[in-house]
Specification:
With 263 residues, the chain is α/β, with parallel strands linked by helices. It is 46% helix and 13% strand. The chain starts with 13 loop residues before the first strand and ends in a 7-residue tail after the last strand.
């Protein structure tokens, strides 16, 4: 086998990606499709799911709110039937959550962020892990965390709390599932170009009383490479972690962020 072939996921890999009708999730799903994987996505946005299926007919997809345990159960069951099993779970779904001082935060927004970003990962894992054990000899789990899972993030405490928790979840599961030959890793994206980041910058700028451009420039100054990353950068790392080249990579929290120095 050519050494570089190890960098490609095996053809036919059966992959579930949550929150994948747009943004990072959509880029990951498309990357696996191009790598000849079988891909099942879910997303809470029904119109975005339909658009994704129309743009890429090879996708299997369903509409689901990942904060709803019953709907997550249905996603894994539907994926098992559609794909004939499961080799890789990409726990990607998440929301930005509220921006503001902790004493001013709406408890309902806090709870929604925790449920969507953290509890949802458990909901998927509790159903996906048995399927991985039963049907795969190349099983893996990739959790989407954030650079906010290794740095403090003022005024974004619910979001940061979930991302730190995801890193702990991954490191613990790597120990738990290692004897079953299931690899578990986290990807920590940095400042990702796109509309979602623009909304985050706008909210942070408003909370600090500065302009959008000033806030954007401030973000870039915190990155060693002085540039944002793209969704394709994240997708590329996901492909690597799913490839034979990463067969001994587990329990890792890997930043793809240009080295964000502080938040």
């Amino acid at each position: 086998m050519n050494t570089f072939d190890l960098l490609k996921p095996a053809p036919g890999l059966r992959v579930v990606v949550s929150g994948a009708a747009s943004g990072i999730g959509a880029a990951i799903a498309e990357a696996f499709i191009q790598a000849d994987a079988q891909v099942f996505i879910c997303d809470v946005d029904a119109s975005a799911v339909e658009q994704a299926k129309a743009a890429q007919p090879r996708l299997h997809a369903s509409v689901a709110d990942v904060a709803n345990i019953g709907q997550v159960d249905a996603v894994i069951e539907d994926a098992r039937r559609a794909l004939g099993g499961l080799d890789l779970l990409v726990n990607n779904a998440g929301i930005a959550g509220p921006t503001g001082a902790v004493e001013d935060m709406d408890p309902a927004q806090w709870e929604r962020t925790i449920t969507t970003n953290l509890n949802s990962q458990f909901y998927f894992l509790r159903r996906a892990v048995p399927v991985l054990k039963e049907t795969s000899d190349r099983a893996g789990i990739i959790a989407m965390a954030s650079v906010a899972g290794r740095l403090g993030y003022a005024f974004r405490t619910p979001y940061a709390a979930t991302k730190w928790a995801i890193v702990g979840l991954v490191k613990s599961l790597a120990v738990e599932l290692g004897p079953s030959d299931i690899r578990v890793n986290a990807i920590l994206p940095g400042v990702v170009e796109g509309e979602r980041m623009n909304r985050v910058i706008a909210a942070r700028a408003e909370s600090l009383g500065i302009t959008f451009d000033e806030m954007r420039d401030d973000y870039l100054k915190r990155i060693s490479l002085r540039r944002m990353v793209t969704v394709d950068d994240i997708a590329a790392m996901t492909l690597f972690l799913a490839s034979p080249a990463a067969r001994n990579v587990t329990g890792q929290a890997i930043s793809v962020d240009g080295n964000v120095e502080y938040l």
